[in-house]
Amino acid sequence: MSDRYIDFANSSLGHRLVGALGLPTPVRLERWQAGRLRPVEGALLIGGGPLAERISVFANRLTDGIYRYGEQPASASEWIPGHGPKLKAVVFDASALQHTDQLKQLREFFQPLLKNLEHSAHLVILGRAPENLSDPFASSAQRALEGFSRSLAKELRNGGTLQLIYVGEGAEDQLEGPLRFFLSPKSAFISGQVIRLSPCATPVSDWTRPLAGRKALVTGAARGIGASIAETLARDGAEVILLDVPPAKSDLEALAARLGGRSITLDICAEDAAAQLIEQLPDGLDILVHNAGITRDKTLANMTPEFWDAVLAVNLNAPQVLTKALLDSGTLRDNARVVLLASISGIAGNRGQTNYAASKAGLIGLAQAWAPTLLPRGISINAVAPGFIETQMTAHIPFGLREAGRRMSSLGQGGLPQDVAEAVAWLAQPGSGAFTGQALRVCGQSVLGA
């Protein structure tokens, strides 16, 4: 549904009135549009340590306008504050910062940029995982990047976002995929996140259709976020298989026909659901997206056993059982990608949702626990945790709660199903095996949770 406050705040009269009253002025975010060719449409600034030179190798595939601030990379044009172009994307390599006095480089680099950013600019800081460093001072300096990046993300205006990527040893060559995503409008509703990259041997061969030749199954795909995920996977080249409950058969078949895929109607909680699913997937799977989920909200004092059991069965037990069966049978092939749809409720909790929050936290735990055991097969498993997303379900939330949900984030608005779908599509890419066992929040840097 339309966010009337954003419409008003961005009108001529509304902008003046909102500014005079000191109210928040969220802007319309730039999102990925069909036909776009490059991740960055504008100037890209690269600076900092040795990883900057690694980025310069593929930077011309991101945009034509490449600039440097400082010595790295030497191959780019120098950007001068106040004289260079407005910046659409920024990457700063902070991986070489090892002592407290070196952290001043963060202020020296970013301070001059803040008044020179375009609308919906995307910033990324690169570092090294503190837990992997033997020097306590270096570990401390790298951990400081989290506080800095999360705070600076909250200071950005006009739809700007910022992420921190910890680059593991041997993962230096995995940067193109994450930067293509986090420097582009595909990550419009993601900000203040900390991502850890590890080595991955499976590259993307065609960035225009990164999922070409891969088979993807999406549960709960008939409408809403699930439908958007299916559409985005198909856009990126995947052959999509859409699954939902029998009552949704009509919508499911119509969407599958439009996307050139096929549909499966199945109750994922049925005792023989795993056997039925394996039978209908004789050619195997490369991508598995567990999107199906339900809510049955009540405070714990009023929670019925039926409400509790139903939510845990659909949201947590079914993904556990089905994924294990697909893995054990070999239906889920080596180098597959598994994405679990969690929620910030599973991170921060939510009144009246003890059952739902438990199920979504369980999915995050499942990704963390399964990730190391699946590494030998090259399989990654991650959770995506949406915040307030504009759907038919949130449209029925009472007005006051809906407005609070929209405004309680750094970006000051709700996300769209497309935002969740873009995150899932990125995690489904072959090269995203460098990212596993983690929870990626798609929440506009919500004030809820960590």
UniProtKB/TrEMBL annotation:
Keywords of the record: Oxidoreductase
One Pfam family in the UniProt entry: adh_short_C2
Keyword Oxidoreductase carried by entry: yes
Enzyme class: oxidoreductase
EC number: 1.1.1.100
Entry GO MF terms: 3-oxoacyl-[acyl-carrier-protein] reductase (NADPH) activity
Domain annotation Ketoreductase: ranges: 214-387
InterPro entries recorded: KR_dom, NAD(P)-bd_dom_sf, Sc_DH/Rdtase_CS, SDR_fam
Similarity comment: family membership: Belongs to the short-chain dehydrogenases/reductases (SDR) family.
PANTHER family reported in the protein's UniProt record: 3-OXOACYL-[ACYL-CARRIER-PROTEIN] REDUCTASE [NADH], SHORT-CHAIN DEHYDROGENASES/REDUCTASES FAMILY MEMBER
Name of the protein described by the UniProt record: 3-oxoacyl-ACP reductase
Organism in which the protein naturally occurs: Pseudomonas retamae
